[in-house]
Each structure stands twice: as C-alpha cells, then as structure tokens.
Protein 1
Amino acid sequence: MTLTFQDLGLSSSLMQSISKMGFEEPSPIQAQTIPLGLQNKDVIGQAQTGTGKTAAFGIPLIEKIDVKNNNIQAVVVAPTRELAIQVSEELYKIGYHKRSRVLPIYGGQDINRQIRSLKKNPHIIVGTPGRLIDHINRKTIRLNTVHTIVLDEADEMLNMGFIEDIEAILSNVPEDRQTLLFSATMPDPIRRIAENFMKNPELVKVKAKEMTVPNITQYYLETQERKKFDILTRLLDIQSPELAIVFGRTKRRVDELSEALTLRGYTAEGIHGDLTQAKRMSTLRKFKEGAIEVLVATDVAARGLDISGVTHVYNFDVPQDPESYVHRIGRTGRAGKTGMAMTFVTPRELDIVKNIERTTKRKMDRMKPPTVDEAIESQQQMTVEKIRSIVENDNLSFYKRTAEELLEEFDAQLVVAAAIKFMTKEPNDVEVKLTEEAPLFIKSSKNKGRSNNKRRGDYNRSGGQKKNNNRSYGDRDRGKGSYSNSAKRRYSNSK
C-alpha cells in the first residue's frame, strides 16, 4: 500500500500547503524521515539533491514551530548561498498557511540589513556557516531557544572547510534539541559530528539506483587533456543543445572555459564561489531565460540549482566521486524529458568511469570524439533543414526575381552551395589556451580516506585553491573583517 501525506497525521495548515505545492505522495526519503522527525528523533539522511530532502526535514520542522513564540526555534545550515535561498523558499511555501516566518542569512548580503530583518522575529533561520558564526559572535543571533537544527549537505560543508564552524554552531544550540543531518557521502569527520552531537540517530538511506535518472543517455569520451576544448566545441556544433551546462573542476577552469567559449562565438558565462551574489543570480536568470546557451559551473556553484529545460550536460573535467556525477547529470532529464550527459576522460582516468558505473549501476556508452569534418557536415545539415522549412512554409514570391537574376548569372548548384555556406556556422578556429588540470585517480585501499591525487588536495569542490578558498569564503560569508575563531585559525594557517 502506497503511503500518502494524509497517512502522516499532519495538521490541516501543512496539508493545505502540501496540496498547494502539488505534492501527491511522499518520496522515499520523505516517507522515512517525516515520521521520525515528528517523533523528535535525530536523523542521518544519506541522500542527494533532487530526492525531496528539503520537504523531508521541512515538514516535521514546521509542524513543531509555535507561531505565537517570537524566538528563533529552528536553524538550517547550508553550504552555499544558492542552497540557503532555495531551502528558505521551500520552507516558506511549506509554512505558508501556518504563517511561520523564515529568514535566509548568507554572505554577500548587507549584514546590517540582516540585523534589521532579525528584529522581525523569524521562527526559522536558514544560513551559511560563516555568516551564522558572524551573527553569533555579534550576538545578533541567539540560539538558546532552538529546538531543531538541520545540517544540509554536510559533506559539502566539510569540503569547503566549514567543519569547525558547524561544531561551533552546534555548541551554541541547547543539548535537548533535535538534530537532522543530511549528506550525500559519510566521510569520517561527518561521522564524528554524528557521534559527538547527535543522540542515537536513525539512519535513512536512499539507494544509488533511486538517485539516478533513467531518461538520461550517458556517454564518455576518451581524449587527451589538450584536445578536450576542440571536442567540446564540435559537440556543441553537432548537438546544438537548447540549454547546456559544462562542468569544470576549479574556479580557474570555469573562468577560462567561459572566456574561451565566448571567443569561439558561443554565448557562455560561468558561475563559481568567487563571484558576487548579484553576478551569480544575474547569470542564472539569463541562462533560465535562454539568453545564455552554455552555463559553465563548478560543482558547488551548481549544487541545488533548480533549472528546468537543460538538454545537455558536459563533464569537461571528470567529477571527483560518483555522488558528484549523479548531482551533475541530474541537472538534465527533468520533468519526464530526456537528457544527454557526456564525460570527458583522459586515458589515466578510465577507472573513474568504471567506479561511477559500479555505483550508479548504469553503463556509460563510449562516444567517439567528433572530427572537424563531422562538425561542419552537421552544421550544413542544420542549414539544409532551415532552407527546407523556409521553402515549405514561407511566401518567397518577393525573393523570386532576385533568385532568377542570380540563376541567369551563375550555375544553380553554385548558388545553392553559396547560400548553404553563407548560412552555415563553420567551426571557429580562434586559438584558445586553457591551463591543464592534473588527472584524478581512484582511491586505493592503501590510501583510504586520504586524497587520491597529490594535486587534488590543493582544490576543494568549488575549485578554489585552499590557501585562497578560506579567505574568499571568509570575506564573502562573514562580512568584511569579521571572522570566527576557527576561520581566523584557518586563515592564518593558510597564509
């Protein structure tokens, strides 16, 4: 028998919101997490974005909110600004009919404006770790009345260097709280948080097969690092995607790729953690509206983004683990539509493809890198299709006289060939230079728990080098000149 939201015994105000949001029946993680949340139990949820985990923790969290109490009652900690905004919007919808007040708190936003908003007595705070610590240090946020705390995408916060900040936040919340921790993977530092800060947590795990999307065609292309960019542009010419996302491993890679694509005549822009919030939101808006045909992104910048209409995903750099791969390709093939995902691998990275296939229980088809001739031929075919469509559907009487004059002067085959050449977008050979990235390697059993590539340790998932990354998140996520003690230690150590 299928479980419904009515079976969960939720209040009428929540049921009203759930119905308005179009939810019909709980997803696997919701069906398991909501009853535990309502029983005030601590929960570890191992699940990716797109599985419905925001509602999984949001529904029991809001059910417990006392709207007559003007204190902060719940805190959700999220790794990025985008995710904090997205989670707060979802919680606002869930709590709409209950009239619970939700406030997002993140770096890059005027802190004085946030302080004014805090005086309006929000019930729920959704924040990034650095900015939350900043407010705790300023005493503009007090967590002594919090009964529920959620750590969303804990592994991402670990990768971004926020583990000490999370521990500091948890230390400021009453011990008799309820703690819900969500993480795609469970590395040792995340397990330690569960051991030290949670009370007999229940484990809810969504299996890999539930996280993959069946209507995505998956390919890998074996090539050398220096040939990747030309292959990418040929694929864009041949496949002519409506909306495409290209994933790069580092911030530098994203900047260089978006600039190189622009030089080759594509409308492309990049997003990563070092851009201002306004710039990131502006780029995403243009992408959603179709003003940008290619979005270049790091894993962290694209994490949690709700973008519909993406037809193609290109993994220019292989993802660091199978979970990241699932996140990346999950940007396409949504709402019942088909999608296509292509992953570029160097010969030394082929083991990563096998590891992804084992984890997702899905085989990637090998795709032969297209040649220049194939790209030109594909563009010609598109031009021919356009000409056919115009011949069949448009009134051409106004142009016939000019056509007759041309045919009197030149051979008909030559005229048509010239028209096709004029309308065909030929491959652009403007020279571009990308900084080469070292290949990734699979972790060996001898090296378990450590970085699987000597150079990998120099980068986090958002692509920033560690010595600069803490500084950039400190500057952006903590407000100017304001650091937590843990951030100060990391910053001074990184110099």
Protein 2
Amino acid sequence: MAKSERKALILPGAGARGAYQVGVLKAIATLLPRRAVNPFSVISGTSAGAINAAVLASGASQFALAVSEMERVWSNFEVHQVYRSDSWTMLRSSLHWLSAVVFGGLGVKNPLSLLDNQPLRELLDKNINPQNIERSIKAGHLDALAITASSYSSSRSVTFFQGDSSLKAWARVRRFGKPTKIDIDHLMASSAVPFVFPPVKIGSDYFGDGAMRHGAPLSSAIHLGADRMLVIGVRDEHSDPEPNESIPADVPNLAHLAGYMLDTLFMDGLYSDLERLKRINIMLEQLDHELSGSIAQLRPLSTLVIAPKEDMRQVAARHVHELPRAVRLLLRGLGAMNRDGMMLISYLLFESGFTRELIEMGTRDAMEVEDDLKAFLFD
C-alpha cells in the first residue's frame, strides 16, 4: 500500500448507529491483502466512534482480525450490555428524576443522567487492552490514535492523542490536543452523551461526549499529519420534504427534541467541516502563484465520505420491538414511538437485529464505491 501520504480514518459519534461503521470497515478488510496491518496512519474517533477507533488501534497488527472482533461484539449486542435496562432500574431512574423536579432538587443526590452505563465500562474492560495501543504504535502499525471529549469545566473540546513523540500538542479557540496514554476512561468520557449518560472524571476535570464542542471534527487528524481522510458517517443526507402548510405540524415532544439534539450533535459539525475543507481546497487550486505567509502552510487535503443511503429512522422502526419492555415504556413516556421519535431510538437501539442490519448496510454501501476505496487505499 502507498505510504507517500498519511491516510486517516474519521469515526464520528454514532450511538447504536456505530454498527454501520463496522460494516464499512468489514468491506475495507476484504479489499486488503490477507493478514494486512491497519492501513490508516491516524485513527480519530468521537463518542461511539471513539470506541471503534480504540478497538482498531489496539488490534492494528491484523486489521481484518480487529474488524472481525468488532463485528462479533456489535452483531450480538443487547441493550443491557450498554446501560442497565431492567424494570427496577428504569423505575428507580424515573422516580429519581421525578423527585428532583417535584422537590426542586435533591442536593448532592440529584440525578446525573437518565441511564446507567456501567455495563458499557465492563464490556470495554473485557474487550479492549489499552496497552496494545502503545504496542501498535511502537511496531509502526499506527502513527496516532485520537479520542475527543468535551470538558465541562473549561468548556473546551479536548482531543487526547497517543502517538509518536514527534507529534505536538495544539491549541485553537476552545479546542486543543493533548498527548496522553489513552485508557477506558477516555472512551467512556467521549461517549458520555449529555443527560443520557453521566460525565466522566479525568484528572481534576469532568468530561462528556466529544461531539458537543468538536466544531471541526477533521482537525484532529489534520493536526496529526493526515493528507487523506476516510470519513464514515452515520446519517443519510437526504433532507425531509418541506411540511405541507395546509396541515399543522405536531408540537415537538421530548423524544423528538432529544433525537434532534443527538443528530445535530453527532453529524452537523462534521458536514460543516467538510464544506470548509472543500472551499479551502478550491482556493488553493485557484492560486497559481507562489504562496507566502501563513497561507503557505496550507496544503490540499482529500476526503472520501461513506454514509448510509437509507433513513435510519425507518430501520429503527423495524426493530424497536427488540428493546426491553422497560426501555420501551420509558421511551413511550417521552413520546418516542412515532416517526420523529425514531431518531432518538436509532441512537439507543443496541439490539442485535438492528446492529446486524446496519453492518450489512455499511458493507453494501462501501462495496458500491469499491473503486473509490481502492484508490484511497492503494494509489
């Protein structure tokens, strides 16, 4: 494989939709030579994408084997492996929130989140060995792994990166890169969706989902030297039709607003960043004279984006019945059991029927652009 340019893999936030990323990676594994090492110099992940990124980094010596392990976990997912979903826990959480609202707060006993994701930590402890990340870097199978989380104390986006000692920290407005040894706490922090999962303490600071402040999701890989970037999105980009003015729209309920928030959180910043990158590339192409000053530091960058062609809400609607009864009751209480609510459910539906369909979808979508993938990997 060509080594003249640094290739980066960008895995944005996804929730349960992260299974789609696994499907795309599965297709890539079939295009590589047998027992090939990881083909990406830089792997950058946020939220659920951070977990997928860490699995790839820790198994970089055999890319197909790492993807196979990811597929095994995602294909057999059940909600209780990510958050506690038994009836008693759901009832206790609901009563806890209700009490806090009715009594104007419970002091130090105020609820921190809607769901308890301790099972996810146990799953990560079982399946990811952070020491293997350093082994992959020392063996030359990976230049850097970047995991982004959001600091609640400083209101900044922090990209924790682990890589060669030549890589330097960076600082921009409300975002900076910090070299560190990545562990399970960083993955839990990056995937701690606000309100849904509790914040995670790293050092003296508390962190939440990395997508919250990450206004430039491509920047981490660029700072770490990427020239080409493969981005695996988790949202189809076909806009909904304009509402019929003769039919009054429904008032958005809590589930609709929560799904809208997650969709905005995970994907809008990414596409804004892609548009910005495209404009800079066009500008550089048009400059036919010798560059000088700060603009001379700019370089053209190429991207390949693979994203679902099918509306994830429709896929989720086919599998919502797989959720535990207690979870369905909670989501029904939020008004999630309609088309608009399926946006929220698609991020929380950690059940095998849904994740397996997304893996198949990701593989199919990737193979439809096989020539582009080959050009990205081998040219």
Protein 3
Amino acid sequence: MITTTGLTKVYPSRGREVTALDGVDLHVREGEVYGVIGQSGAGKSSLIRCVNLLERPTAGTVTVDGQDLTALAGRGRRAGKELREARSRIGMVFQHFNLLSSRTVKDNVELPLEILGISGQARSRKALELLDLVGLADKAKAYPAQLSGGQKQRVGIARALAGDPKVLLSDEATSALDPETTRSILQLLRDLNQQLGLTVLLITHEMDVVKTICDSAALMKKGRIVESGTVSELLATPGSELAHELFPVGGQASGPGRTVIDVTFHGEAATQPVISQLSRTYNIDISILGAAMDTVGGNQIGRMRIELPGRYEENVVPVGFLREQGLQVEVVDEDVLAETPVETPLLVKEGAK
C-alpha cells in the first residue's frame, strides 16, 4: 500500500545542508498497522510528511496504493489536481490536534468535505456518522475548548477519515496524552484498521505503542531505517535492537565462568515451564537476571536473561534443549554485560516454574 524507494530529504539550514532522510526504503502492506520508531531527530516526521508530499522529497519515490505521488509533484496544473485527489485518500492525524477553535466539533470534521466540494446536507450526514464512529456523537455542537485531549484527538481522527481514505498517517498522535487516554486512542486506531480495512502508518518514540497495536515496525536512526520487519520476525531475530528495546532485560553475570543468555518466548512456549524443566533435566541452578513479558498482537511474548553455571562450552547441551523447545536463544557477549545494570538474581530451584 505504501512504498518509498531511496527517499531522501535535505533541508537548507544556515548556509549548510541537513539530511533528514538518507535513502529510506519502506514497504507497508495493505491493511497492516506499521510503526516507525526512533528518537527525536531520527527523521520520523520528515518521513511521514514525505509520504503524503506535505514535504517534497529531494530524491527518491513515494508510491501509495499503486500511484507514484512524486511523479505528480511539480508537473503542472493537471498533475497538481491529481496529487490533491491522491492526498484526499490519505488521512493524517497530528500530535497537537490542529482543530479550528472557532468551529464546532461537527464543523471541524466537515472541513475537508467542504474543500472537496461536498454539499451541505451530505457533509452534515457524513460528519455525524464519523463522530458516532469515534464515540463522540454527543459532542457535535461542542467547541474544541470544551473537550479533553483525548476527545480532541478523536475529532482529529474523525476529520482524517472524512475523505474515506485507504491510508491513515499518524504523527505522534498519542505523545501529548496521558497513558489511559493513549490506550483508548490506540484501541480506536486498531478498531478502525479492522473495521474499515485501513492501512495505518504511525510514527512514535514510545515502544509501548509498537507493542500495543503494530503488526510491523521499523527503527530509524540518523535518517535511515536500520531495522524493519513484522514484530514477530523481529522478536525472533538474534541481535535485533528493536526486540531488545521492546522487551528490555538487564543483569550481569555474578562472576567469571558463567554463561548468560537471553531467551525469547512466544507462542505456545510462552505458557510452558521451560526454565524449570531445564533445571530439573540437567540438575543445574539457574539464576534469572531479568525478565519482561507482554501481549503483542494477541500473543503472549516475553524475554528472559538467565545465567547458567560454567562457560558456554559446558552449556552447549542445555542451550540446545531450549532451542528444541522452540525458543530463541541469544548468548550475551561481554560488551553487553558491561553495559547492563546489576540486578539481584532470582534463583530457580528444582520444581519451580
């Protein structure tokens, strides 16, 4: 549904050039929720604004629903009209809502329909339908100043849906909201994705957003995508930075001659007492140095950092046992150990889960 190829954006700044996007290749499948995550300055906002050509790329192409939008940019009046029509099928939700304070909630939702030349009666009917869809049917005559932050964002989402888009872009849509409101907005986006078949591309700096609703994700650094894939693929990829960020686990070896490994549980293995089975089978004490577990895409997924007695060469068979159970096992090297905080280990005794 969305493809960028070699996407580059360079901004002039005080006599020099700043590269915000450096050859970004992005592939978002139809009907999925795709999250782009990264720190401030990584290029996330430039990327999403280039997808609908609010920012004109310096180089590269942007294709949405089979149409090359970059080919329409700056190609005369006819191409400009086609670009406007293409944009009308791409909804956008902003971080700070961008509602018109002098208009009622209903009038704010009607605004894009006015621009499209839709008649007054049809505009009114559509706006009320969309407000009902986002749970604000009773706020149609209210003004933005009378709404909470979450309600304002729901109005912004309703407005973004006015043109019946196939794609919804979300630019840090939850970063100004409290945690409970964030959860409700994310659930709304997931519901709209499923009910309307919307393809959702969102940018965020919050890992919880990716864990909550994303099917796929990409990590951006310094204008480049350094890692991407489905969330399940990333969690099963040894050395995945995104996987470590999604499920951070800490803890150091308690001393020399110990083997520290990270174990990723997903699917049926997440509900099995595998660690206690390992302890009983090989008669070894296992220290749990850190663990994290959550539900991603309706599936329970977790990571655990454990310590085995003896060097790795002595633990090849126990490690093999874990892999045979369908677990992803990654040996933590000395550099990683040196960077992680020391935590009090929990000893797993025989018979413990």
Protein 4
Amino acid sequence: MAIENKEPLLSVKNLKTYFKTEDGLVKAVNGISFNLYPGETLAIVGESGSGKSVCSLSIMRLLDQNGFISEGEILYKGKDIVKISEAEMRTVRGKEIAMIFQEPMTALNPVYTIGFQIIEAIKLHLKMNEKDAKDRAVDLLRKVGIPEPEKRVDQYPHELSGGMRQRAMIAMALSCNPSILIADEPTTALDVTIQAQILELMKELQKELGMAIIFITHDLGVVAEMSDRAIVMYGGEVVERGDITTVFKNPMNPYTWGLMSSIPRIDKDVDVLWTIPGVVPSPLNFPKGCKFSNRCFLADEKCSKENPELISIEGEHSSRCWHIDKLVAEIKKVRAGEN
C-alpha cells in the first residue's frame, strides 16, 4: 500500500507507558513511534512481554490504575488524545477508535445479553432509540456471520461458542463505524478454521468500511496475510519496521530474523527448528545496552553497554542494531547453505 503524500490518521510519537509496582517502575513501552494511515493494516509483532498490548491500551487510554503515560503524544486526526479529558476520550473510544480484545469471554459482560452490550454503544454514540439500535445490532450480527441473529441478540456470552463470541466482539467494535480498529490477538483462542473465517471477515469489513487496522499478534503467518506494514517490538521498543514484504524477505534485525527462522516451513525438511535462546527479560531487569543483547548471537561488548538507535536503512525500512552488516552476511551464508 502506497503511503506517499498521505496524512497519518494516527501518529504515535515517543510514547512511554510505565507501571508502578512494589518492585519498582516497569517501563512496558519505552519510546515508540509510528504512523497509521487511512485504510491500511499495520501489524505490531513480538513475543509476550514485548509491549504490544500495552501500546494498544495506551492508545485507548484503558490502562490499569498503576499505569500511566509518562511521555509522548498520540495524535488522532491531529489532536493529542493523551491530553484530552476522560469525558472527551469517551466520545473517541468506541466511536472513532474501537478495539477487539484477545479473549471475548473476559471482555464481554457475562450478566448482560450480547444485544444489550452492542445496543448500549450504539445508543451512546449514535443517539438512536431502542428499536433502531436493536435493529442495527441484529444487522451487525448478521454482517459478521452469526446465524439466527434475531435469536442470538438476546443470548448471553456463555450461550455462544468461542467463534461466535469473537464475531459478537467484532460486531460491537464496528457498531459505530470507527475510523481505526485495534485488534489485539483476535484469533489466538480460536481453532484454525474459525481463525481463517475471522481474518477473512476483517478484511472484507475493512474493504467495505475503509477503516484502518492495527493488528497486534505474535503469529507471523497472520501478519503476512493481513498487513501492509509491520512493526517488530522487543523490550518495549521498536527494533524494526517497514513494509511487510521488505521485513519478511530482508529482515535487518537479529530478533526479527530469529522470529522468521522459527516459523515451520512445509518446503524445507528440517529436523530441528531454529529457536531464540532464553526468554524475554523482566522489564525491571533489562540489559543495560541493547535489550536483546543477552539472547543475540551477534552481541559483543558494545551491545551490552550501549543501546543502538533506530536507524533508517532504505525508505520506510528501519532497524535498531549495531551489527546490521554482520547480520546480512550471516543470512547470506544460511541461505546459500539451503540452496
């Protein structure tokens, strides 16, 4: 998707989101920046603990009481929504920017019907009466592929299957025709057949409604299927970003390369999959230099002492690494050995 000469719909600048804990200050998101353009799908990728979901909750201003935005701007259509009042934010949340949560059973209220929860948002933001709002809720359930929507609208979340609950969440998110849809791991708990249906549904609805999507996931197959551009996060920072083809074909960060190499491939006969050693360190105890240095096969003394800047490689493609040249050489060796 070409983005030249387009104004960003959403612009996140140097966002820092921290949490106060008994053990100290957790820097969950530590200075990330990106733009989201009208009609595009931007993937935010990384392991659990990389800061993906905290980034989305910061945009929605749905942080826990011990969480706060320490620094940075979140510009939606030019307005910094970090600085607006909670009352004003409620007019943005749900209407302008909507979110699909990872687990619908915890996101949906179990004591209210599906219809009530969708109707509530419609009445709040679109000022419809009860009858028109219910008719719209039924139409939305039908649009997202729920059978017998006239019946399902009066059922409770526990009466629906996992796939139908996720579709109901999508219907609720789309109820006010948002400009931006944030999808946080929307298919993680679903089987592969339902996952494919949900992804196809999201693409169809995006095409129909023209909304931009932020797709948060650790599933790189989903990223390749859904996205125009990708941001790779690690340790609360962006370590690589670029258009989806470039990031997949020419990764310029050891972490991104590790993620790509860990994907099982049906065209390669291998006995053991590549793995990234170790685990994501606690945000209370990150390495002093590069956050990935204690797991990286290219790390040296400089990496353990100095954190590299995110530098531009070509066009939109950027990476945070001291040893990009060494990585390129290593990748060439590996690919030469595969041929």
